[in-house]
Write a structure and sequence with these properties.
eight-stranded mixed β-sheet; about 20% strand; about 240 residues; globular
């Protein structure tokens, strides 16, 4: 079906990476998963289609709530949540929150004793910041309220009684082509929603392949412009 094909594509887009979020977090289809700042819930619908039956998404700015057996998406903040979850995810949402340590404390409260808290967000001080500075695409002002260093994320986790298990840098070509657009005083998107780079044919395949290779090399050196942090409850 069209819905199934879309869900499978979404699942592929999110999960076919060298780093495997669920393997690292030790969860599977029976695990209770909470996605904080889930938007319209594309990721959760993809998970649900793939057999996950205990998935919940919350977003304070959600337009319309939805519910299916084993899947619910609600207009709610993490401070309003109860229950216990095996994996709590912040996919590029924590940097939009005015009190990230409070959000992490609530995640620790909701996390099961053997569960994990996953945080993905931009990291400052890395190559893209040093190269592009105020034109670095991940600054994304004013939507991003803060952009931490790796050390700052570790400190925030400790303040929330979370123990850092692992860090995986997972930056991609956006750090290059987005920032290069800003260097040219061009936006990422046109008013009609099309991507500026595609519309103006600014980044041919060989350029994008080079950007991807450079991103992978930076990730290997812990110098990419975003990372995934795996936390567990402090003993």
């Amino acid at each position: 079906s069209l819905a199934g094909a879309l869900a499978s594509r979404l699942f592929k887009d999110y999960f076919e990476y060298p780093w495997d979020w669920f393997r690292m977090a030790h969860v599977g289809t029976a695990s209770r998963i909470l996605d904080v700042g889930c938007g319209s819930g594309h990721l959760l619908h993809a998970l649900h289609w793939q057999g996950f039956r205990h998935v919940t998404g919350i977003d304070a700015f959600l337009g319309e709530e939805s519910q299916l057996p084993g899947l619910q998406i609600m207009r709610r903040e993490i401070a309003q949540m109860d229950g216990t979850f095996d994996l709590i995810m912040f996919h590029h949402s924590l940097e939009h929150m005015p009190d990230p340590i409070s959000a992490l404390r609530h995640a620790a409260r909701l996390c099961s004793p053997t569960g994990a808290v996953l945080v993905r967000l931009p990291i400052t001080g890395t190559f893209a910041w040093r190269e592009y500075q105020d034109l670095w695409v991940q600054l994304d002002a004013p939507r991003h309220l803060f952009i931490p260093t790796q050390h700052a994320v570790e400190v925030a986790g400790k303040a929330a009684d979370l123990r850092l298990d692992a860090v995986e840098y997972d930056s991609g070509p956006l750090q290059f082509f987005g920032s290069e657009l800003y260097r040219k005083d061009l936006p990422l998107f046109q008013p009609d929603g099309t991507k500026t780079g595609d519309k103006l044919k600014l980044f041919p395949r060989e350029v994008m392949d080079d950007y991807r290779a450079r991103a992978a090399a930076l990730n290997a050196k812990a110098d990419g412009d975003q990372a995934c942090f795996y936390f567990r409850k402090a003993a």
